[in-house]
Amino acid sequence: MNILLISFCVSFVITFLLVRYQHFHGHISGDHDLAGPQKMHAQSVPRIGGLSIAFGLLAGSLYISFKDNVWNVVCPILLACILVFGIGLTEDIKKNIGVQKRLLVIAISAIIAIIFIPAPITTLDIRHLDWLLGFTVISIFFSCFAITGLANAYNIIDGFHGLASMIAIITLGAILYIAFKHNDLLLFKLSLCMLAAIAGFFVWNYPKGLVFLGDGGAYLIGFWIAILSIMLVERNSNVSPWFALTINIYPIFETLFSIYRRLIHQKKSPGQPDAIHFHTLIYRRLIRSSNPSVSKNDLNAKTAPYLWILVVINAIPAIIFFDSTGALQAISFLFILTYCYLYRSIVIFKVPNWFRLY
Predict the structure, then answer these.
(1) What DSSP designation does 354 have?
(2) Which of 73, 176, 308, 347 has the fewest Cβ atoms within 10 angstroms?
(3) Which pTM was predicted?
């Protein structure tokens, strides 16, 4: 309970200060580009909300370290997170750091975490791949790729009020439940710490969008969740490695599908801003078109619940079948089929009635 209160209160107060005094820092921290393909807000908003999550996470993590004497695990994670958050925050302020440079820093941070925790991926429950992962170099490289990919994936889905933050809360809830079930109190507390920090930010971000995560916040959240997902599987042998994949399937598949669509279908660079992510299509085809008189900010807030529901529906059976690789593979495959079906339905203007919330 102390962890929950510390992380939440620190995050909540700092977010309040960022919102209250944005007239002092808005010229630096504000997202002034309202015309970009991924911009769905009506006015300039501070995009440094990741600061509140970072400080909430730091406060909670230090409390855990002092109380349980787990510096050997927490310190490497925090060190890596400082680099990840730092490069993201720099982009939020300067807005001129290329994607490749950011991903390189995240990859270096991932290697630091993997080596010093240690937390490499050693199994996927796939015979030949597991044999390859038995080689340390391959295991570290693959783990680095997975962590960097998920950190970037959270930045990709951070397109509407409350979207990335609530997806993260749902995912962390799944991790902390399984950790608690296996008496892995360290992972339980680290999950709770981030969940509470995000919650302190969320109340200011949704539904009014008074502050944004920014690249720093999105990268930090995705990086932390990636580390905890790997540690959960590596520290608890009866948790299937597919549990980590299944609870993160939405941001992962959104990223992979976007790369395919941009690189293969459109013959464009996947690093360029994309105007037809799944969440963007929901906003443009389902919400904006059917609510023409509603303000842009309110329309923005109506988008995230569609994805929240899909992720919750996916997470519940994943939690139930956390130890069954076959069941988790089926759950992941079903989510991908549902995603593709709904995406195509929206594109061809044949959205099923059951998917209309408003």
Answers:
(1) G
(2) 347
(3) 0.95
